Amino acid sequence: MTRETKKQGKKKNLPLGKVYQLLEPGPVVLLTTEDEKHPDVMAMSWHMMMEFEPPLIACIVSNRDHTYGLLKKHKECVINIPTAEIAKQVVGCGNTTGRRVDKFRKFGLTPLPAEKVGAPLVAECYAAIECRVADARWSEKYCLFVLEGVKAWIDPAVKDPRTLHHRGNGRFMVSGESIRLRSRMK
Q1: CATH assignment of 25-156?
Q2: What is the 3-state composition of the chain as percent helix, strand, coil, each rounded to the nearest 5?
Q3: Domain assignments of the chain as residue spans, ordered by start
Q4: Which of 29, 65, 98, 147 could bond 131 through an S-S bridge, CB–CB 3.0 to 4.6 Å?
Q5: What whole-number distance in Å separates Cα of residue 144 and Cα of residue 103?
Q6: pLDDT means per 10 residues in the chain (186 residues)?
Q7: 3-state secondary structure of 154
Q8: Which sign does the torsion angle of CA 69, 71, 75, 76 carry?
């Protein structure tokens, strides 16, 4: 056993192209945008919080996705947070393009009017954040948009939502038990 092998223990090499599987930051969401023909919805898992108030959320939307053009054009969207109960619809939305298909109809999702933006909420999701694009300067180079939450919705009946987390290669993890850890600051 070499010195390097001893340092690494039982760990083995992980190809860099699979690092995202370790760092998926949060639940898979359904990002809705408005379209002239019908509202569009895509599954998205590359996002992160940047600020508390007003809420700023960074997200990656590939320039190959239909949603990219809609987000650039209309500069608003809704981040809808689904639970595991609609996992098949979420995956279906992620594997289908909205260029040719009305995904709301195809996957049995219900669009609801938002209050502050033109994109719809998804009735089957337990929470939603209406957003406007706050910064798109990195969208051309990195497909990164900074969104500002302008209105948030939550179903108070859902106490411990079981959300989906993408693990790569068609694998998902469902969030588990909620625990509360709080220490007193001295």
Answers
A1: 2.30.110.10
A2: 20, 30, 45
A3: 25-156
A4: 147
A5: 23
A6: 61 80 80 92 94 94 96 97 96 93 96 97 96 98 97 93 89 84 70
A7: strand
A8: positive
How many whole angstroms separate alpha carbon 29 and alpha carbon 161? 13
Tokens 């220490």 found at: 183
Q: Could you give phi then psi for residue 134, rounded to 5 degrees?
A: -95, -30
Alpha-carbon dihedral angle through residues 57, 64, 167, 137, given to the nearest 10 degrees: -30
Does residue 86 contact residue 100 with C-beta atoms inside 8 Å? no
- Tokens at residue 80, please? 């809808």
Residue with tokens 């709301």: 104
pTM above 0.85, yes or no: yes
- Coil, strand or helix: which one is 31? strand
End-to-end CA distance of the chain: 47
User: Do 39 and 80 contact (CB within 8 A), yes or no?
Assistant: no
